[in-house]
Each structure stands twice: as C-alpha cells, then as structure tokens.
Amino acid sequence: MPVQETRLIFKHIDAAGYTNDLDCYLRHGGYEILRKAVQQKPEELCEEVMKSGVRGRGGAGFPCGMKWKFLDRKSGKPIYLICNADESEPGTFKDRQIIHKDPHQLIEGILISCYAIQAKTAFIYIRGEFPEGARILERAIEEARSKNLCGDNILGSGYSVEIFVHRGAGAYICGEETGLIESLEGKRPYPRIKPPFFPAVLGLYQCPTAVNNVETLCHVKHVIDMGGEEYAKIGTPGNSGTRILCVSGHVQKPGYYEFACGDLTLGQLIHDVCGGLRPGRSLKAVIPGGSSAKILRAGERYTGKLKDGSSFDWGLEDIPMDFDSLMAVGSMAGSGGVIVMDDSTDMVEALANINAFYAHESCGQCTPCREGSLWMKKITTRMSHGQARQEDVDLLGNVADQIAGRTICAFGEACSWPTQSFVLKFRDEFLNKARAQAGAASTNGNGAVPLI
Amino acid sequence: MNLKPETLAKIEAVIPRYPVKRSAALPLLHLVQEDAGYIADEAVEWIAAKLDLQPINIYELVTFYPMFRRKPGGRRIIKVCRTLSCALAGSYKTAEAFKAAFNCGLDETSPDGEVTIEFVECLASCGTAPVVMIDETLHEKVDGERARALAVEIRQAGGPASAPTA
User: Could you tell me which chain A residue has the CA closest to the CA of B88?
Assistant: First the structure.
C-alpha cells in the first residue's frame, strides 16, 4: 500500500500558483495564527509547545518546549531568538525549500516564537551560500513590517519585535548553536563549552537565547494553530508531528518528502516514495540522518528493545523513520538527510569523501577533532588512491575512537561516527581493497621481486 | 578604501542593527567583498577601524571563513559541490569538465581571467545533485555535458574580462 505524505510544513511548497510574497501568503490564511497568538498569554503558548512534544529538526532532536523552558527569565537580561538557517549537514536540503518558497511561514513561526518567549529581537543566521534566500527573507520581513506584523506594537498588541537576517560565510561549524552565537558576535565560530555556556542562560551577548532550526520554528506555528495535544496526535508518542526527509544519492526520484513521524519505513521511503534504485542495481548502504549519522548496511538485522519496552527485529528496510527507531538501531534521524548508496559505491572512497568534509570543517579548537579529522581524511584518501595497507583499517578505528567525547562540541562525534561505522560494517571491503592493492603492487610488470 | 557610495550606505545601515558593533564584522566583510571582489589588507584595517576593533579581529575572520577571498578571483566564480551526494552523482567529473573548458586547475583563475574554479562543501541541494554555484546563482543537475554548455554561456556573456588586479 502506498504511503501518503502528510504535508504540514510543505503544504504549499511547489503548489501551482503559490508564490513567496506576502499577498499570496495572506490569501492562504497567513498570519492569522500570529493574530490569535498575540491575544494569548506567552506562557500559554510555551505550554502548548511543551505539550506538543515537538522535537528540534536541526539534528539533535531536543524537545523545543524544554529548550524554551530552560531560558533564564530571572536574570532581567533581554532574551534573544536565533533561527538557525545555517543548513549545512550534507544530505539535508529542507530549509532551502522553506526559505525560498514559503518564507512567510518561517517569519510567522519566528514571530509567534518570539512572542512566546518574549524576545524583542530575533536573528536569522542564514548560511552564506544562500544569497538569494537571504534576499527573499529580507524582503519578506519588510513586507511583514509594512503590514504591522513585525516591528513596533505588532497588530496593536503592545508587543514589539525586530527580525534581522545575518549571513554566515561558508563554515559548517556555525550550525552548532554556540559556534553560531560566536559567529553572530563577529568572532570565529569556536563552539563554547557547556557548562556554563548553555545558550538558554549565557547565549548571545551572554543573554538567554533560544536557538531553533528553521523547520522547528515552522512547526511552532502549526502547534499553536492546532493546539499542542492535537499536534501530538500526528506521528507516534515521543516522535510527534511530521518530518521532512531529504533523499539523495542512488534513487530514481531524489527529493524532499514530508511524512507523519514513524508513518513509513526506510524501505518504503526508498522503494515506494523515491521510485527505488537505478535499474539493475541493488541497495548497499544508507546514511539515514545527514552525513554524520552512522551508516546502515543492507542485509543487517537489528534487534533490541524500544523505549516503550516492545522488542523489535528489523532488517534495514523495516526501520521506521523516526527519532527513537533510528536511535535504537545505532544511528540517528539527525537532520533528515537520507543518502542512499547502491552496489556501485566504493565504501572506502565514500568515507574518504565524508572525511574530507569533516577535515575541512573542523574549527580547529580541540586537538582530537582537528588532528583526528585530518588524519582520517589522509588515511582514507591514501587508501582510495592505491596506497591502502591492511593495518589502516584498525588505525582508522583507533583514531576515530579517540575523538568522540573528547571535544567541546558534538562535531567530535559527528566526524568520528562515519569512520567508526564504515570501518565496522564494511571491514571486509576495506581489507579487500588493501589486499587487492598489495597484489597489484607485487606484480610490478617485470616479474622482478619488489624491492620495497 | 574606494567603496561605492551605495556600499557605504549599506554599511552605515547595518551597524546599528546590533547591540554590539563587532557583530557587524561578517556583514561588512560581505559588503566589501561584493564591492571590491576580495578582501585586501587595506579592507581588513578599514573594517577594523570602522568597528573599533584591532585588524587581527577581522583578519582572523577572513582566514577562517571559506567564503572570503584574499586575492581577486576571475570575472565569475564557479563553485562545484564535492560533498557525498554530489560526488555520488558525478561532481568530480563536473569539475573536470569546467577545468578542461577553461584550461585551469582547481582554486585557480583561468588564463583569460574569465573564471575561478573551486570545490566547495555541501551547498544543501543534494536532491538535484550535482550542483554548482556560479557567482550567486545555483545550477542543478550539472553533469559534464551541462558544465560544458554553461562554460559556453559564460564565454558568450563575457565580453572583455576585467583583468585581475592585485
């Protein structure tokens, strides 16, 4: 039975005749939820978000309501909201669609969220590679201001708020919330150590700050529209709402799809939604939640117990695409970026590609990450170019094992998980590569014995 | 610094957005680079003075954030995404096609000053891989053939290339 998409965030995206200007948004009922929201008490809105159970869509999956609850309201310092639009986890391209095609949905979500946490200033930190997206958002904010939806005394409520767009400049680490805050303060984006620098207490300019992903802030709008309890009925307990999945790699129909959390399995996503693999190819591996998520190998079986106590026994294609299930099989839902690889893929090269990314993007602050990511890249690149050694396999695992848990931010985990999982699950392929290359080197063409 | 009046106006408008001046460092770097094409030493010092900072506070940004250039580039900047989803769809071949079309290597400016070709990390459009950004425009599904066609378009649109000046 084909699975149906549940389009909440992407309801209007790619719909015929839907444009990204304010008039179109208003024609589709835009800003009505903000209008209702500012007539309620801010605490009530926070309560609805808490009840909804909506989890952050940027990667960590932390409950949004909880994040807001931690905000230090006693300090008397201003509270800031930052929209994290630094979408840069490889395999993820959902925020780009929202920003380009439905920017007012995001602006409305930000305004409602600002009112709920009583922030007077919001910054949208958008990655530098989205120049068009930044212009679209700037225009959308101006349009909203012209209708008194943003700025002083919005909709006559007595509440005032400003939103500014701030462009990054090509650094992945700015997606880490404290790195982002440093960057917004005009510095190198070196992540801050937690404790004490939890953004909810000591965030932007050392003031309490909520940092939320683009998609999460859009979900807030729908939570307030439907009410937290009603929203929580979408999806499964603990995995409420819809989830946007971005599929890329070796499928017939790559793209972005929105489903109620847990509504479909990885197999349904690949075969039914994305049209399956290319003709004559078979599935080899899937990275289910952005490139840092641990890889899943076709043919594996996963058994264990879920949080609710029920046991599971799944093949790769049976895994439900929700936060808890993917965590239960040892990977993560992360940012929703699903990268599919078929049997034509060389796993050593694929890992070398990922490692080159992390080596380039490590901020360099913590030695294990800076050096480890670099050496994992060097080793896998060397292995890909005919210089693989048997002992490289364990060496890679050894380097990776010494990074995670020893760094200021989660980049340490993000850069070591691919290597740890590739080496564990495709050990045979790594060893075979070394063997094949050793064989090729010994037959050096002349039949002479190798001298070195 | 010889910035255009409109750039100066934008700079004056952006600084008061922030409660702390230093926050305007990245916006100013973007504005100066859009105007001048790159960030010269003089620009580093000028921005620092503008924000009541030391030059090192700006210099450390220019050397960290990949988007800032320390030298002038070609008339157009071609950024080919090399991260996994694009690589699986053949982005390394796309880069080869551009290199051959303009007779230059990666991180180099073509001899005619027409383009600078770079590999960049994920551009967040993995569903339409391989993707390429030419200046500020994203091009999707750029295989070798499409790259060659884009190269022809770039040359035709070219006119006299503004020679790189240091």
Answer: A249
